[in-house]
TrEMBL record, chain A:
<keyword id="KW-0812">Transmembrane</keyword>
<keyword id="KW-0813">Transport</keyword>
<feature type="transmembrane region" description="Helical">
    <location>
        <begin position="148"/>
        <end position="166"/>
    </location>
</feature>
<feature type="transmembrane region" description="Helical">
    <location>
        <begin position="84"/>
        <end position="104"/>
    </location>
</feature>
<feature type="transmembrane region" description="Helical">
    <location>
        <begin position="199"/>
        <end position="223"/>
    </location>
</feature>
<dbReference type="Pfam" id="PF00528">
    <property type="entry name" value="BPD_transp_1"/>
</dbReference>
<feature type="domain" description="ABC transmembrane type-1">
    <location>
        <begin position="91"/>
        <end position="269"/>
    </location>
</feature>
<feature type="transmembrane region" description="Helical">
    <location>
        <begin position="32"/>
        <end position="51"/>
    </location>
</feature>
<protein>
    <submittedName>
        <fullName>NitT/TauT family transport system permease protein</fullName>
    </submittedName>
</protein>
Automatic annotation (TrEMBL), chain B:
<feature type="domain" description="ABC transmembrane type-1">
    <location>
        <begin position="123"/>
        <end position="316"/>
    </location>
</feature>
<dbReference type="GO" id="GO:0005886">
    <property type="term" value="C:plasma membrane"/>
</dbReference>
<feature type="transmembrane region" description="Helical">
    <location>
        <begin position="166"/>
        <end position="187"/>
    </location>
</feature>
<feature type="transmembrane region" description="Helical">
    <location>
        <begin position="193"/>
        <end position="213"/>
    </location>
</feature>
<keyword id="KW-0472">Membrane</keyword>
<dbReference type="InterPro" id="IPR035906">
    <property type="entry name" value="MetI-like_sf"/>
</dbReference>
<comment type="similarity">
    <text>Belongs to the binding-protein-dependent transport system permease family.</text>
</comment>
<feature type="transmembrane region" description="Helical">
    <location>
        <begin position="292"/>
        <end position="315"/>
    </location>
</feature>
<dbReference type="InterPro" id="IPR000515">
    <property type="entry name" value="MetI-like"/>
</dbReference>
Length: 278, 327
């Protein structure tokens, strides 16, 4: 009962603050409102768990998660290096390079392009993460099998976007290149690849999340005794939910950082595109 | 999210146009599929040749070189060239490293139509277990997602406080939460369908929120002004302009949401060692050394995803056509 009252009071305070912020229309509302909302949620969680006597094997309070996070930094770092740096990043780079190469090859034929676009879009919608047990069987339980799953998962969205992007030039632009006497390769590198960049980055950004999902979920099917997916599944079994939450915090931070990094590179490379202009 | 060009999450119109193209591109599509199948068929030989050579030797066929250890040192292609008689056997192994397409198709056929629907070996039975969780979760997630999107569009406070989190959630591998949710609900005494449905629900929830907010905001100033000159109320504006205008965005998010929901239900079956469902079949095939079971479950899941997305594509085309939004 106490917990319920406390939750309602905290929620009311947070929401009133945001109401006032929204009504004032102040510039700071853009970042202050989500921050207040997030903090309100955390407080409700903390107070609700503590006053409501929720067992820590069901939902540990955020403070306990923070303590565990700080205390298990070495474990978290080892898992991060295994899953993200080795598995996800390797697979992401391999998948992206392969997709890009295939896209450039396919792009030379209008016939193939018309076949690859729908098939690729179709494959991108399939539950490819289910191939994890097969790759674990082929490549062993260490990170190469995770990189392979990630590579296949990110391949199709990047392929479809790159193929679509390489077609995204106007007849006028292509004619201009022809009047310059530019052959296939110069017009590919000077016109069509740059023109495809907004599309490519859309694919690369979608693929960041897929890469992390692939690397973590593939570890549920078999892994060495290190890695975020391994830690999550074993800690869940040991009911050490604070460690699981700490891993999820790491996954969230890594996901946002990865996506943010791609968005930043995109901004640098496609500054000319209408979507990037201020 | 940046309004970028591209195919996938943020571009309903491009993928819609691609579906239209698909009808006219039957031959190119068949070519690409044939190439993929050809690559698969070709890979079967080098992937299985060592296993097939061992099997052939046990059956009394003369194989060069004649010990498994010596064969480990020979490359797959070289081994196939030196033992052409063994090559056909790579397609009919019981426990292949890579099954041939015809083996997977046969296993799919056998476990879908060849056994009783209620049997533990029937893919229809396992499919229903996964599908029911998927559909229940998808319904919950979509309903809540649309409700939140409406709230965000009409309340500036909700827009400011919730929307950034909804967008950020798309960059986070929330699927990692799945095992914990299963165990959390398990210790509360909730088991079976509901935990998987909840995972499906939150995976389909966020794409629907982000897509619907974009869709409900898609009417431009001119259209909103027109309604103002009609003296339309906010609710009339919602029902007669915003909601119809959001339909293309809604369908784009529904297609993403349903395939995410299916992945969620499958992954939800992994950590607890569930006994039924596509995920469980994949695990069983993996742990008991029955690759055909894993492959059949994988393809059954892929077919299910394709059918679900296909149904929404058809519904999309039919309803957009009726609404006069030809794309």
């Amino acid at each position: 009962m106490m917990a319920l009252v406390a939750i309602i009071v905290i929620w009311g305070i947070g929401w009133t603050m945001n109401l006032a912020l929204a009504r004032s229309g102040h510039r700071s509302a853009g970042w202050a409102a989500p921050l207040i909302f997030g903090l309100t949620l955390l407080l409700v969680w903390e107070v609700g768990v503590r006053l409501g006597d929720v067992s820590p094997i069901i939902l540990p309070p955020p403070s306990a998660i923070a303590v565990t996070f700080m205390a298990s930094l070495p474990i978290l770092w080892a898992d991060f290096a295994q899953t993200i740096l080795k598995g996800a990043l390797t697979g992401y780079v391999l998948g992206a390079v392969a997709a890009f190469a295939v896209a450039v090859m396919v792009d030379r034929s209008e016939f193939l392009t018309r076949g690859v676009l729908p098939v690729g879009a179709f494959m991108a919608a399939l539950p490819i993460v289910g191939t994890a047990p097969i790759f674990v069987k082929w490549l062993g339980s260490d990170w190469p099998s995770k990189a392979a799953v990630v590579g296949v998962m990110v391949f199709f969205p990047i392929l479809v976007n790159t193929v679509a992007g390489l077609r995204d030039t106007s007849a006028m632009q292509r004619d201009l290149m022809r009047t310059y006497g530019a052959g296939y390769w110069p017009s590919l590198f000077k016109l069509r690849v740059p023109a495809a960049m907004p599309f490519v980055f859309n694919g690369l950004k979608i693929a960041t999340t897929l890469a992390l999902i692939g690397a973590i979920v593939a570890e549920f099917f078999g892994s060495p005794t290190v890695g975020m997916g391994f830690r999550i599944s074993t800690s869940v079994g040991q009911l050490a939910l604070d460690l699981v939450w700490a891993e999820i915090v790491v996954a969230a931070l890594a996901g946002s950082a990865f996506y943010g990094a791609m968005a930043m590179i995109e901004k640098r490379l496609t500054f000319w595109h209408p979507s990037q202009r201020k | 999210m940046v309004l970028g060009a591209g195919v996938g999450r943020s571009a309903g119109s491009i993928s819609g146009k691609m579906m239209g193209d698909a009808v006219r591109s039957v031959l190119p599509i068949l070519t690409v599929v044939a190439v993929l199948l050809g690559v698969w068929m070709l890979s079967v030989v080098p992937m299985n040749i060592h296993l097939a050579a061992d099997q052939a030797q046990r059956d009394g066929v003369v194989v060069v070189p004649d010990t498994p250890i010596a064969r480990q040192d020979v490359g797959a292609v070289a081994l196939a060239l030196r033992n052409p008689a063994v090559v056909p056997m790579t397609y009919v192994l019981d426990r292949p490293r890579l099954p041939g397409p015809q083996q997977v198709a046969a296993e799919l056929w056998k476990t879908t139509f060849g056994v009783k629907v209620t049997s533990k070996k029937s893919l229809v039975y396992h499919g229903w277990v996964t599908l029911s969780a998927t559909l229940l979760g998808f319904a919950i997630g979509t309903t809540l997602g649309i409700a939140l999107a409406v709230g965000i569009v009409f309340s500036r406070t909700m827009d400011l406080s919730v929307m950034p989190w909804a967008i950020a959630s798309q960059t986070i591998p929330i699927l990692a939460l799945a095992p914990m949710i299963i165990v959390m609900l398990g210790s509360l005494g909730i088991q079976g369908l509901l935990p998987k449905a909840i995972i499906s629900a939150y995976l389909s929830f966020f794409p629907v929120v982000v897509g619907m907010v974009k869709g409900l905001r898609s009417p431009d100033g001119m259209q909103l002004d027109l309604l103002r000159t009609y003296h339309a109320s906010a609710s009339q504006g919602f029902w007669k302009l915003r909601l119809p205008a959001s339909m293309p965005y809604l369908f784009a998010s529904l297609k993403i949401g349903i395939s995410a929901a299916l992945v969620g239900a499958i992954v939800g079956e992994l950590p607890t060692g569930a006994r039924a469902g596509f995920g469980a079949r994949m695990l069983v095939g993996d742990q008991y050394g029955q690759p055909l079971v894993t492959w059949a479950a994988l393809f059954a899941a892929a077919i299910t995803a394709a059918v679900l997305v296909g149904i929404f594509s058809l519904a999309e085309r039919a309803s957009l056509k009726r609404m006069g939004m030809v794309r």
